[in-house]
Amino acid sequence: xxxxxxxxxxxxxxxxxxxxxxxxxxxxxxxxxxxxxxxxxxxxxxxxxxxxxxxxxxxxxxxxxxxxxxxxxxxxxxxxxxxxxxxxxxxxxxxxxxxxxxxxxxx
DNA sequence: GCTCTGACTATTC
DNA sequence: CGAATAGCCAGAG
Length: 107
Hints:
The longest helix has 12 residues, at 9-20. Helix 1 packs across helix 3 and helix 2 packs across helix 3 (41-51). The model has no long low-confidence stretch (mean pLDDT 86). This protein has 5 helices and 4 strands; from the N terminus they run αβααβαββα. The protein has a single domain (9-102), classed as Winged helix-like DNA-binding domain superfamily/Winged helix DNA-binding domain (Arc Repressor Mutant, subunit A). The chain is globular, with a radius of gyration of 13 Å. The chain starts with 8 loop residues before the first helix and ends in a 5-residue tail after the last helix. With 107 residues, it is mostly helical. The protein has helices at 9-20, 29-35, 41-51, 72-82, 99-102, and strands at 27-28, 60-61, 86-87, 96-97. The structure holds a DNA duplex (13 and 13 nucleotides).
């Protein structure tokens, strides 16, 4: 894994977990952080922002099932393309992920 | 080595 | 349901 090197284990861990999320699934920032035992949902998002390149960031969503900031439309593309369960919404940006099914529980 | 910032979360109004 | 507040951690400057 150290190929994603950024100067910290945390970054590597985040990338490792996110990369491990199978298609059609999703995880909340908190779950991802908790998976490698390093609390800090905010830090997870930060890693994506700086090192999100090449990572399935759309598989990482907020606790409410909403995709990252301003990427709702872009993320939605991936969800439909990968078959990620989405909940119906009244607005284009008002949709949210069906965490009940999409949440990937490792182990 | 300290301070500001942020793709977060939970609680409260 | 939406806006505001506080608490959290790690990275960048």
